[in-house]
């Protein structure tokens, strides 16, 4: 498969997924109307960006080069294993603790060796997520066995 074909197929799949998400957001209960608006907005943005991808790939004149799927195997597998472990740990550790550990461990594993920056970026990310989802959108965040 070449890059042009992959871009067109990925963009088309993204448009279908955005439409499905938009329609599913219409089924949200009235008590989650704010969240539904946010999801609809994000799905519209996703649909537009995927349409741009399809259009730019379809009208591209460049030669379609073949794709090398995984260029760096170790970072790819590390990120995949870390993401699966993150998803598995979320119910046990809770969203905030598992997310903080995920950001720090993945950054360290991918070669970023500045611990202060790793901890600071994880803290800022979690603070932004807390502000947007818990305070602004009032979306429930998974709590761990310790309640945070």
From TrEMBL:
Zinc in keyword set: no
Superkingdom of the organism of origin: Bacteria
Transmembrane segments: 12-32, 38-55, 76-96, 116-133
Domain DUF1468 span(s) in chain numbering: 15-142
InterPro entries membership: DUF1468
Pfam families: TctB (PF07331)
Keywords, comma-separated and alphabetical: Membrane, Transmembrane, Transmembrane helix
The name this protein goes by in its record: DUF1468 domain-containing protein
Lineage, opening ranks: Bacteria, Thermotogati, Synergistota, Synergistia, Synergistales
């Amino acid at each position: 498969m070449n890059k042009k074909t992959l871009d067109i197929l990925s963009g088309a799949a993204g448009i279908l997924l955005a439409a499905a998400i938009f329609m599913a957001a219409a089924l949200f209960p009235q008590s989650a109307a704010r969240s539904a608006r946010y999801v609809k907005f994000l799905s519209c943005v996703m649909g537009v960006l995927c349409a741009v991808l399809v259009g730019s790939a379809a009208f591209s004149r460049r030669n379609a080069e073949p794709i090398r799927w995984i260029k760096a195997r170790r970072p790819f597998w590390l990120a995949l294993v870390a993401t699966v472990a993150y998803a598995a740990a979320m119910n046990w550790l809770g969203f905030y603790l598992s997310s903080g550990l995920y950001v720090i461990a993945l950054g360290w594993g991918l070669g970023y060796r500045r611990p202060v920056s790793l901890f600071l970026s994880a803290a800022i990310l979690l603070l932004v997520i807390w502000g947007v989802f818990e305070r602004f959108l009032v979306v429930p965040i998974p709590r761990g066995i310790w309640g945070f």
